[in-house]
Design a protein that fits this description.
Blueprint (H helix, E strand, L loop, with lengths): L3 E3 L3 H5 L6 H4 L19 H7 L8 E4 L3 H27 L9 H8 L8 H12 L14 H12 L4 H13 L5 H14 L12
Antiparallel strand pairs: 1-2
Helix pairs in contact: 4-7, 4-8, 5-6
């Protein structure tokens, strides 16, 4: 029997190479029970062992392909959440803002806040550790966000937050900054606005 299952956030939140191998397969697992690559005769014991609990963190979400589709949507939502957290922290520490300790604010948001989540826990830990200045502002994407955006366009579903979060990741890789340079130059030409130069002495 083939089923489509979704682990929601179980893998990212709970599986970090710490689950013993003997918990990843049923105790009575026999190689002969493999009906085809990636399929077990009864997959439920595997999911129960990998999930945060036997009754949570996983679900049978539908027929063939449903689990993969749910996982795609899960990852797309993750893109939007990550972007929102990153933008919020940027605003917290922006020039002219009150002297806010972003790490302490994030720590408070970990408990009892509507925006608390495993992702917030990770964000608070990153801010507490410091060292962000050593990381290049260059963000990759795994492909799930792109697939979600493409699927939404094909189906006529508006997902502006997820779409913009993907665009921001792509924008981060434009180290040459050609579009921004050209926009600045155009403003200078038609509106007489100041054009900031890399070298202030350049003509």
């Amino acid at each position: 029997h083939l089923y489509s299952y979704s682990f929601a956030g179980a893998f990212g939140e709970n599986i970090h190479g710490t689950v013993p191998l003997d918990r990843m397969l049923p105790r009575d697992f026999e190689p002969s029970t493999l009906e085809m690559p990636g399929s077990l005769g009864d997959p439920v014991p595997v999911f129960e062992a990998l999930a945060p609990g036997s009754d949570r963190g996983w679900a049978h979400v539908g027929g063939s392909g449903a689990g993969h589709f749910a996982k795609m949507v899960h990852n797309a939502i993750e893109y939007g959440l990550m972007q929102a957290y990153a933008e919020g922290v940027s605003l917290l520490v922006s020039e002219g803002a009150p002297d806010v300790d972003a790490a302490e604010a994030a720590r408070a948001w970990q408990h009892g806040s509507i925006i608390s989540s495993t992702l917030m826990d990770l964000t608070a830990g990153i801010l507490a550790d410091g060292g962000l200045e050593r990381i290049r502002p260059y963000v990759q994407d795994s492909g799930h966000g792109r697939l979600a955006v493409q699927t939404a366009i094909e189906r006529g579903v508006a997902i502006p937050v997820i779409t913009q979060s993907l665009v921001e990741r792509i924008r981060s890789r434009d180290e040459a900054g050609l579009s921004a340079r050209l926009l600045s130059a155009m403003r200078g030409r038609f509106g007489g606005h100041d054009v900031p130069l890399v070298d202030p002495d350049a003509s």
